[in-house]
Amino acid sequence: MSYIQNSFSVQFEYKVFFTEHLFDPANPEFAGFLDSRAEKGIRKKLLFIVDDGVTKEHQTLQEQITAYCGNLEGYELVQDIIVVPGGEASKNDLQLFYWLVNEIDQHAIDRHSYVVGIGGGSVLDLVGYVAAVSHRGIKHIRIPTTVLSQNDSGVGVKNGINYHGKKNFLGTFAPPAAVFNDAHFLTTLDERDWRSGMIEAVKVALIKDAAFFEWMEQHAAELSAGEPKSLQYLIRRCAELHMQHIGGAGDPFESGSSRPLDFGHWSAHKLEQLTDFELRHGEAVSIGIALDSVYAWLNGMLDEGSLERIIQLLKNLRLPLYHPLLDIEEDGSSPIMAGLEEFREHLGGRLTIALLEGIGKGKEVHSIDPATLRKAVVMLRDKW
């Protein structure tokens, strides 16, 4: 046998900055980061792509960006700040994806330049994917504007769009150059959005950090009311736990089938699709967590006291526990069950579902019993 073997490793590093009023002239965070990446003799471009929901609530944002970036040494702002539809619709529109790739081409954005995404998780997923596939990888900066994106999707390494109704079917693993969490953007969120965004903190606490779960139980009233100090702690701790997992689990690009951070997500992704994304991602994950927690209790994995605490916290945060599309017929047929195979397919390899053995202690299983799952659905529907 004759062959040539090659082996190399690539180091990735990025920071998540916590700040307020990012584009205030007195705020040095964004300028300082770019200055640290400046290269002598090379003038880099900045192309901003912004969620239209953000521009509606922050009507002077584009002027602020223009004024702020006009003072940056070594950088040139593309004057056409691009505004795109927000929400899951942005990930369902292939023509929008192609149009943004064409904008990269038209504005001659090269691999020294930066694409800057401002918006919720869906827009950041789209922008990150556009950047990752253009010129085989343009650096991108994320500025998440929702609780869900600031504590979860915006601080990770995944980018993607939906295809043929399947969530994130097209995508890449491409870490951002930096993430800027600006707390001011949260002040204009719809209550439904900031409330559902908290579920990712519940999720990561349940599988990794019992003390964090206890903190949420103690501060549920403030969190449910959107009290800024408590919400900011929740976002920061949740982001920290997510980043620790991504960087320390040994599989940041998910080459294996183990994905504990997807606890509660197998049914959530299908529920989103079945409701034509009328359900927010966080609302669907809340239902998924409730379903998998009851299933784990029925399966003898989780004690009843822990189950009651989980359900009570979700109720205290005023998050949903059930949707009629969960219902499973006695013969096992159900629109939600197709989500299991789609989840396995998305993982690659055998089905791997994260369940709970206790609060703060996750365990992976490789099969789900439809009869037990049906009992869990009935409990969610009739008991709570």
From TrEMBL:
Cofactor: NAD(+)
Any Pfam family matching the protein: DHQ_synthase
Key word Lyase present: yes
Keywords tagged on the record: Amino-acid biosynthesis, Aromatic amino acid biosynthesis, Lyase, NAD
Organism superkingdom: Bacteria
Domain 3-dehydroquinate synthase C-terminal: 197-327
Coiled coil: none
Protein name: 3-dehydroquinate synthase
Lineage: Bacteria, Pseudomonadati, Bacteroidota, Chitinophagia, Chitinophagales
